[in-house]
């Protein structure tokens, strides 16, 4: 029997030491790193279109049975008043005291069938609740390709950019019925029926159907992919690799993989005892960055901190509702974009390569996240006002930026803050962390996307 997450935490001296010293790096995207070059691949999702193969890196857990929708409603902050077949939502779950457990895209596949697709702890959390609560559902778990001992049943392709609809229509051979945002539709490509979710990974304001996630049976994937690539030639479609894919959230604003509130507290103890450490996301994850607190609770966000305040709906009973109702009128942190100062980034790049014994933490271009949970301290003067999460460069921004959660009072357009880059005491023993010294980077706050 593998040890439980609770046992691993106890043997490690607590959740923070466990996460700090677990070997690992950023969440992997097991696809080709580049198809042309990551700069042009980044530019394409704003100027023409890009196609990403999402068939490999995400976990897909399906819940089938008469209680599938009730299960999701009982543990999701989202409204389910209009949810059903061919609808989707950014599903968000919290623990009893309102702190964030996880998120994923929830697909309404059929009247009694839903799928959670993404990466993180929410899949395990809902599976646990289904088992413990006696819900009438069958759970089918399809692991990401690196962890999958069998064969994945579906392909997933993301077609993204202003030319996405034109490319899809050419591949289809005619007009496609318009699909409303976060709804699904069907059309044919290469003689095969594809299901398409209308959602965007990077954001092109004011344009219709600029992001389509296409999926279907795995065996049909190569023919569909080839047809899309042929159709996209005249529109400047590029196939995107793992490097460009890792930077998409810098523009869209999705704060991916914050620390889930499951590593402490009596309300989640049974979950930690149920969860195996070596076979779960929570047990394999690692923590990095300059934000350094011995109390794991200091790392837990609320839905508002992550920009999910708009999806919290009190039209149904769900775990954590009472706590969120109390929190609703209180100050929160706010999701913002931080534009790092070019001259400081230049200094940091040089310091990581040529700093000798005083070198700074290497800034990997274009995506510098080096842990599953990346938390860098953000300061306004001498005050700690939040944390910086994903960080990197895109040609569409034209510089280095990061996503952050900072106190509402400091979330003002044009405000100046500093990001502390590098870990304390020379860094931890993670393989991706070399010995280094900390430094500070100036950044400018923006409450709207930089691209």
From TrEMBL:
Gene3D superfamilies, per the entry: Probable tRNA modification gtpase trme, domain 1
Annotated spans, Disordered: 1-38
All copies of domain GCVT N-terminal, residue ranges: 33-255
Entry-linked Pfam families: GCV_T
Name the record gives this protein: Aminomethyltransferase family protein
Organism the protein comes from: Amycolatopsis ultiminotia
């Amino acid at each position: 029997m593998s040890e439980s997450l609770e046992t691993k935490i106890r043997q490690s001296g607590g959740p923070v030491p466990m996460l700090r010293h677990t070997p690992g790096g950023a969440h992997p995207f097991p696809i080709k790193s580049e198809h042309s070059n990551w700069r042009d691949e980044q530019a394409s999702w704003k100027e023409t279109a890009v196609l990403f193969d999402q068939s490999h890196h995400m976990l897909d857990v399906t819940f089938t049975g008469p209680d599938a929708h009730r299960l999701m409603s009982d543990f999701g902050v989202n409204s389910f008043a209009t949810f059903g077949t061919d609808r989707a939502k950014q599903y968000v779950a919290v623990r009893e005291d309102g702190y964030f457990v996880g998120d994923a895209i929830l697909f309404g596949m059929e009247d009694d069938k839903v799928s959670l697709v993404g990466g993180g702890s929410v899949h395990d959390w809902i599976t646990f609740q289904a088992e413990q609560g006696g819900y009438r559902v069958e759970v089918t778990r399809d692991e990401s390709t690196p962890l999958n001992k069998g064969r994945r049943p579906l392909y997933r392709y993301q077609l993204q950019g202003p030319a996405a609809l034109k490319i899809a229509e050419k591949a289809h051979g005619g007009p496609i019925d318009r699909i409303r945002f976060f709804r699904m539709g069907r059309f044919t490509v290469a003689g095969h029926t594809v299901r398409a979710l209308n959602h965007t990974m990077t954001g092109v304001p004011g344009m219709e159907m600029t992001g389509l996630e296409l999926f279907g049976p795995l065996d049909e994937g190569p023919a569909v992919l080839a047809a899309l690539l042929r159709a996209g030639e005249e529109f400047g479609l590029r196939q995107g690799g793992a490097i460009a894919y890792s930077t998409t959230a810098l523009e869209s604003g999705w704060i991916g993989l914050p620390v889930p509130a499951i590593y402490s507290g009596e309300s989640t103890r049974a979950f930690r005892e149920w969860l195996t450490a070596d076979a779960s996301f929570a047990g394999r994850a690692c923590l990095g960055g300059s934000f350094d607190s011995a109390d794991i609770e200091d790392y837990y966000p609320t839905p508002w901190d992550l920009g999910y305040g708009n999806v919290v709906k009190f039209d149904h009973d769900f775990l954590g509702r009472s706590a969120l109702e109390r929190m609703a009128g209180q100050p929160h942190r706010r999701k913002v974009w931080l534009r790092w100062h070019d001259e400081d980034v230049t200094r940091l790049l040089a310091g990581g390569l040529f700093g000798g014994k005083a070198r700074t933490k290497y800034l990997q271009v274009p995506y510098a996240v080096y842990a599953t949970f990346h938390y860098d301290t953000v300061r306004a003067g001498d005050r700690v006002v939040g944390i910086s999460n994903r960080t990197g460069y895109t040609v569409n921004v034209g510089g280095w930026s990061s996503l952050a959660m900072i106190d509402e009072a400091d979330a003002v357009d044009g405000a100046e803050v500093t990001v502390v880059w590098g870990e304390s005491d020379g860094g931890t023993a993670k393989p991706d962390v070399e010995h280094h010294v900390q430094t500070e980077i100036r950044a400018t706050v923006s409450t709207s996307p930089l691209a």
